[in-house]
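A reminder from the course coordinator: this example appears on the midterm review sheet, so study it carefully.

Given structure:
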């Protein structure tokens, strides 16, 4: 019975005819627990990006992370980490304030994606995550400290 559980199929499940959606796997949750609150890891849902957006790696809307197929099925942890930083930002700012600040930052930075303060911070924390090789820190506290800059 145990062996059967260990070889259970990928937690991808068919939610409708074409859209696939899943929660985080046990392995993803264990890995990310050093950075994110358990309730957030429990709530997050991963979905496959719609085909017209295939060139995009990932998009987050509230606690749903849309990933392109190659990321969903491959080495996606750094990207997932980055998108979960956005989930924390959404959580702290609320949907409309997040979107407003995102657009405002985009316009203020000459419509350059990398100049958006919410993105800059997500990339900064992603860099720290990669450099730390698993050494944990609390993303929620980092986001809280940076709120005035968003
Ligand atoms: Zn981002």
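Designed residues:
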């Amino acid at each position: 019975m145990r062996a059967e559980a260990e070889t259970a199929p990928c937690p991808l499940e068919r939610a409708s005819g074409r859209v696939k959606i899943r929660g985080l796997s046990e392995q993803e949750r264990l890995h990310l627990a050093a950075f994110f609150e358990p309730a957030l890891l429990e709530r997050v849902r991963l979905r496959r990006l719609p085909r017209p957006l295939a060139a995009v790696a990932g998009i987050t809307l509230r606690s749903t992370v849309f990933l392109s197929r190659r990321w969903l099925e491959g080495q996606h942890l750094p990207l997932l980490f980055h998108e979960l930083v956005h989930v924390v930002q959404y959580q702290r700012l609320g949907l409309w304030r997040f979107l407003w600040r995102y657009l405002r930052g985009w316009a203020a930075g000459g419509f350059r994606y990398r100049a958006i303060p919410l993105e800059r911070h997500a990339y900064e924390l992603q860099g720290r995550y990669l450099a730390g090789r698993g050494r944990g820190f609390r993303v929620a506290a980092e986001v809280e400290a940076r709120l005035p800059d968003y």
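The chain has one domain: 8-141. Residues 82, 86, 119, 122 surround zinc ion (CB under 6 Å).
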